[in-house]
Amino acid sequence: MQLFTSEAILLDVIDLAEYDRIVTFLTPEEGRLKGVAKGARRKYSRFAGQLQPLAKVEARWLFKEGRELVRLSGLDLLRSVEPLHRDLETLLTGGYIADHVLEFAQENEESRRLYRLLDSTVEAMLQGVHLPLLTRYFEVWILRLAGIFPVPVDCPSCGESILEKGAALPRGEGSLVCSDCHHGAEDEVVSPEVLAVLLRTRFESLAAMAADEPDPTALAGVEAICRTVRRHFLQRELRSYRVLQQTLALPG
User: Fold this and answer.
1) What is the tens place of the pLDDT at every residue in 78-87?
2) What CATH number was assigned to the domain covering residues 2-81?
3) pTM of the entire predicted model
4) C-alpha of 232 from chain center
């Protein structure tokens, strides 16, 4: 067996048998990994209080060739996410963000950029950045890193500026084109306000956008575009998205 050590962010924790848990986590060097935490459900386990989804840890694990799961030998908590559990919307948003990473992160493949995105997003949540802005920023970037939704400055069809001509998302496609190059009646037209937010995510940090936050209507438009692209790629919707939307729709 080979021993590995790395900074990691936990993504999912499920029970296994009577005393163990299966933990899915993201590392910069090895991407998404899944491992067994032996005895994690015992009262005095060395993992007690550390297996919180989105917690940042230093993980140690043993890898054996031919095995699907690694074996977690220890975790040291680097950043707790306990404050996120005090508010239902924040908790559900965290689950939605983790769900994206579970879908798009690759197993045993270097994921430094995705790790930085997830790490900075969780840190922003803990600092109280407005959730709608934070979530839209994360959605755009994870789709961009997955190669699914690169937002162009110039139309990929004619080369003209989409800022000047306006933009649309053709039905069944994952890339914006200028308003002159879309011809389908069912294409999703992108307003100048939504396009401006999409382009800001490309050039500005989340902190910079938070200092001059876009209009809620524009953020809602970004959500709709990301949802369309994500559903087209996955051929389904994330369960965590449905849960989040249904919860937010409840009175109070």
Assistant:
1) 999 999 999 9
2) 2.40.50.140
3) 0.92
4) 17
